[in-house]
Amino acid sequence: MKLALFASAIGIAAIGWSGAHAAEHEVRMLNKGPKGQAMQFDPAFLKIEPGDSVKFVATDKGHNSESILEMIPEGAETWKGKINEAITVTFDVEGIYGYKCQPHFPLGMVGIIQVGDNTDNLDSAETAKLPGRAKTRMAELIAQVGAGGAGSEEAQRD
C-alpha cells in the first residue's frame, strides 16, 4: 500500500514538473509593425518548444489569427480566432505552423511558428498557395526557419 502511494506521489510530481516548463509567448496583431510595415504580427516569426502556448493579442482592431491549413504539421490541431479577440493556442506537435489574419491575408499579414527543431513539413509550407503579398512575406519568414530560431522574442521581431 505504501509503495502504491509513493508511486502515485511520484507520478503527480512528474506531471507538475513537466507542465512547469511550458511557456506562454505573446504575438501582437498590429495595423503597423515596429518598422512601419502595414498589417503585421509582432513577432511574425517565433520559435518555441513543444507544450508552449502562444497568445495572439488583438492590439489593434480588425484582426484575428488562424492557421493556414496547408502549413501545419500532420496531426496538429488547427485554430481560428475571432476578429478583435485574443486567442491562446498550445502547440504540442513539432513542426512549422503558418498562420494568417483572414481579413488582411492578401496584404501579407502572415506569420510562422517553429515548434521544436523538427522541420519535416517545411516543404509543404514553402509550396502552399498564398495570395498577393502573403507569398512574399511568407518566403521572408520561411528563410528564418532554422537560422532565425535562436534568441529572444525581441530578436525575432522584424
From TrEMBL:
Its main location: periplasm. The keyword Transport applies. InterPro entries: Amicyanin/Pseudoazurin, BlueCu_1, BlueCu_1_BS, Copper_blue_Plastocyanin, Cupredoxin, Pseudoazurin. It is found in: Periplasm. Its cofactor is Cu cation. It comes from Aquibium pacificus. PROSITE patterns: COPPER_BLUE. This is Pseudoazurin. Residues 29-115 form the Blue (type 1) copper domain. Keywords: Copper, Electron transport, Metal-binding, Periplasm, Signal, Transport. Residues 1-22 form the signal peptide.
